[in-house]
Amino acid sequence: MSPITGDVEITDSIPQAIIIRLKWFLNEWRMRPDFGLPYYEEVFVKNPSTSLFASRIRKEILSVEGVVSVDSLTVDLDKSTRKCDVSFKCTIEDGADITQVAEEVVIDV
Fold first, then answer.
1. N or C: which end of the chain has fewer CB within 10 A?
2. How deeply is 43 buried, as exposed, middle or buried, from its count of CB atoms within 10 A (0-12, 13-18, 19+)?
3. b/e map 67-106, b = 16+ CB within 10 Å
4. CA separation (Å) from 109 to 53, 72, 96?
5. How many Å apart are CA 9 and CA 101, to the nearest integer?
6. Cα dist. 72→5, 9, 34, 100 in Å?
7. Secondary structure (3-state) at 33
8. Cβ-based neighbours of 99, under 8 Å, separated by 6 or more
9. Model pLDDT, residue 45
10. Where are the beta strands (DSSP E) in the chain?
11. Residues 6 or more apart in contact with residue 57 via CB below 8 angstroms
């Protein structure tokens, strides 16, 4: 079991850490307002740049400790429902094990 610090439990799960990062909105956490992705500023706007935001998401995934590579990434924006579907496959290294994981995250407001 991971140590508990304050009201946050540290996770050893790399896929879970990625999902948490992708669901974190910029300025959401008052202790670190620079953490998170700029969904309101760049995604849920009139003419979003999907390719620019996909690049940000790729960078965010790669910033998670244990992620070796992002093998595929799809960002699908639905302006009418204000949802952003992110699907990705990445290679992770957890100790001596190297595996590929695939996940989908839905961001909505």
1. N
2. buried
3. beebeeeebebeeeeeebebebebebeeeeeeeebeeebe
4. 17, 25, 39
5. 22
6. 34, 29, 26, 11
7. coil
8. 91, 92
9. 87
10. 4-5, 8-9, 67-78, 83-94, 97-108
11. 22, 37, 73, 75, 86, 88
Tokens, residue 63: 């910033």
**Taking the complete model, does pTM exceed 0.70, yes or no?**
yes
pLDDT tens for 51-97 read 999 999 999 999 999 999 999 999 998 888 889 999 999 999 988 88
Question: Are 74 and 86 in contact, with CB atoms under 8 Å apart?
Answer: yes
**Cβ(2)–Cβ(11) under 8 Å?**
yes
Amino acid found at 74: T
> Which DSSP symbol is given to 40?
I
CA distance between the termini of the chain: 33
Identify whether the C-beta of residue 88 lies closer than 8 Å to the C-beta of residue 61. yes
